[in-house]
Amino acid sequence: MRILTVTGSLLLAGGASAQVADLTVDPGQSSLTVEVSAVGVSDSDSTPLAGSVSLELDSYATPTGVSVDDFALNATNSLSFNFSLGFLGSASLTVNGISASYAAAVPTAVAPVDGGGAFTIVGVPIALTGSGTASASGLFSALDGTTVNLADFGTFSGDLSGTVQVVGSNVNLAVSLTGTGEQVVSGVTITSTADLVLVASGPVPMVACIGDIADDFGSLGADGMVSFGDFLALLGLIGPCPGGTPGCTGDIADDFGTLGGDGMVSFGDFLALLGLIGPCP
Question: Are strands 4-9 and 199-201 parallel, antiparallel or unpaired?
Fold first, then answer.
């Protein structure tokens, strides 16, 4: 079983999120192993992986749900396969330009996380790309000079099972994922099994709250705190929202300071901001 481990820094302890955490894959600890079978023989090869993984926890304090939003992975090396039936023939294939990505337009369903952190996301789709030209003889001769493209195996699908735990300031995820695909090349059925191992890390996303529109220096962008910097930013936003549409940056209240955008950044927003000073929940 292959293990995927993801670690991210927890920036806001106790903050419920539902925001996407973008993680960077460590190629020194991440790999893709592909086993290819044809004419009763098989071979496998592995390559390190680089890239990114995006996932989402319903809470970055005590998660009870997890989903995968996306992953985009690139192999740092090619994969080479050699098949031999002795005097009956042989074949070799080197695949270049390999990548693996999440093959769906929407995130996975949210999987429940139990008290021990265990979960399973069923049927995570994986798309592989990469191609190579086979050199073959004997019983494999039909493959000689044929281009084999991993994308032609179709979408691989595997279950992502493991645990997710928040330990101190880190989020730790350990899972396994294996998928299988098949294609017929020049009359020869080729089966491929992909086994993903990923280790990635990145910060848990900052959880913004109403009024948190800037950092301490007034530069736009949430910092997890409603403070003097948000007042500075609000000064530069005074006026109507674009198109008069309520809810633009800084439009958090009506003219009387009651929360709820009114299409205008005005004195009422400053009044509301006074009652929001402090760290985001």
Answer: parallel
Domain(s) of CATH 2.40.128: residues in the chain:
4-201
* Per-residue b or e along 93-118, where b marks 16 or more CB atoms closer than 10 Å to that residue's CB: bbbeebbbbbebeebbebbebeeebe
From its phi and psi, is residue 262 left (phi > 0), alpha (psi between -120 and 50) or beta?
Answer: alpha
Statement: the pTM of the whole predicted model exceeds 0.85: no
Give 82-106 pLDDT, tens digit per residue. Answer: 999 899 999 999 999 999 999 999 9
Task: Give the separation between CA 173 and CA 6, rounded to whole angstroms.
Answer: 5
What is the rounded CA–CA span in Å between residue 6 and residue 29? 11
Backbone Cα Rg of the chain: 26
For the chain, the straight-line distance linking the first and the last C-alpha, in angstroms and rounded, comes to 39
Contact call for residues 79 and 131 (beta carbons, < 8 A): no
DSSP output for 220-238: BS--SEESHHHHHHHHTT-
- Token code pair at residue 142: 């039909």
Residue 200: which of 45, 66, 55, 101 has the closest Cα? 55
pLDDT at residue number 4: 43
* Partners of 73 in the β-ladder: 51, 100
In single-letter form, the type of residue at position 280 comes to C
DSSP H or E run through 12: none
Domain 4-201 grouped into CATH 3.30.70: no
161: tokens are 């099972």
Q: How far apart are CA 176 and CA 168, in angstroms?
A: 24
Per residue in 12-27, pLDDT (tens digit) is 333 334 577 888 888 9
Specify burial of residue 235 (Cβ count, 10 A radius: 0-12, 13-18, 19+): exposed
Nearest to 104 by CA among 126, 122, 120, 119: 126
